Amino acid sequence: xxxxxxxxxxxxxxxxxxxxxxxxxxTSVILLVAVPFIIGAVNGVMPTLSGFxxxxxxxGIIYIPVAIVEFLVYTPMLGVGGSYLSFxxxxxTNMKIPCAMNARDMAGTTxxxxxxxxVSTISVATSAIVTxxxxxxxxxxxxxLQPVFQSETxxxxxxxxxxxxxxxxxxxxxxxxxxxxxxxxxxxxxxxxLVPAAISQTSLLMIPAGGLALLIGYVLFKKxxx
Amino acid sequence: xxxxxxSVNSGIFYLLVAGILGFITIMCFVFLxxxxxxxxxxxxxxxxxxxxxxxxxxxxxLPSISILLGVIALSGSLGVPFSWxxxxxxxxxxxxxxxxxxxxxxxxxSGLRVDEMSIGAFVTIGLVMTAxxxxxxxxxxxxxxxxxxxxxxxxxxxxxxxxxxxxHATTAMFVGLCAAYIGAYIGKAIPxxxxxxxxxxxxxxxxIVMAVFEYFIQKKGKAALENFSLAASMLVAMAAAVFLQMVx
Lengths: 226, 248
What we know:
The complex is a heterodimer. Chain A has nine helices and no strands. By secondary structure, chain A is mostly helical.
């Protein structure tokens, strides 16, 4: 295959991946959104519009910008096929990107080449399949353990899964950026100590806390102190 | 068994999730085969392609087990099938729990607490979790072709070597997120009406375990532990919650 044929073939391959990727994502979005409605219909309830809008407004303000940044930053690293599969199957930063990078290093390909695109797609697809299989095996083992997980004794564990997450994540992020963390953490703690009504409004508090952390981060970045 | 937990662990829900994940896995195979064939077509060495598959499979094994631990952590409040779906598709443990907590508060619960959950609350929380995570997927559907096309055509700029603020922005946003939660746990632990020390206790235990992991990862070069640090810290802290409840 000469260079021109190779280029033509690669363009056709990429077009095919875009077509397939869009079909996959559109179908998956429909299926995923349908799940709460199907479960609701089976149980005779439906999601409430007011609850959904209130929750989505708070979630969107944080996660839509994150989603756009992730899309802009990660897709050039993942290529066409890798991007469609990674953003659908999740765990992008903690698994798919390191996996694709590792595969590329082993294969010795360079960014922007057809070889690189192919290796990235194969790597992400394999990673997604293996994860699914491992979780399926785990879920099969989990099913008989359901009565144990639902016992009264373990209730405090599952009622405190969110504090467990933010304790662990907090340590990681605060240690990574103590200069950014100091003021928002002190202010939030003071606010919740002095105004008890604020405690139950964490979903609102995270907006000024996130904004303040961003502002401090930006100022430090501009001063070259990050 | 709690009526809510029975509903979110029903057989039909397992079948639904298995069907969706089955479809996505088949599509992953389609991408894999298509790319493998394309590699052969442009003259890539079969050995390299096979090595890519085996290396990616082995690379993924450990992090996958940590995701499974996340399914266990999430399953007590959202049921196994939904946790299985959420951690197999689009999301990650940090996102799922945070959004579930925000959604739970938005519909009037004090948080993602099993004893306050109902199937009605669950379907609304599930819809918020699903819609909230689709940003990148929507971007891919509408903009990926154009964006990557532009990136590949754009002349390469001379890099200053310094990463932009984008890399720090996500970290800063998560710092703010964690600050809001930790601040609330500190506020809850203050001795007054409605005092609850458990969330702060659990958060501190999780932080200590994470600090131990970070020590081994950063100082002792045990990078493989990175895959487990979050899920393992959470599970130890959750076990500590059970212990504290027993002695209180």
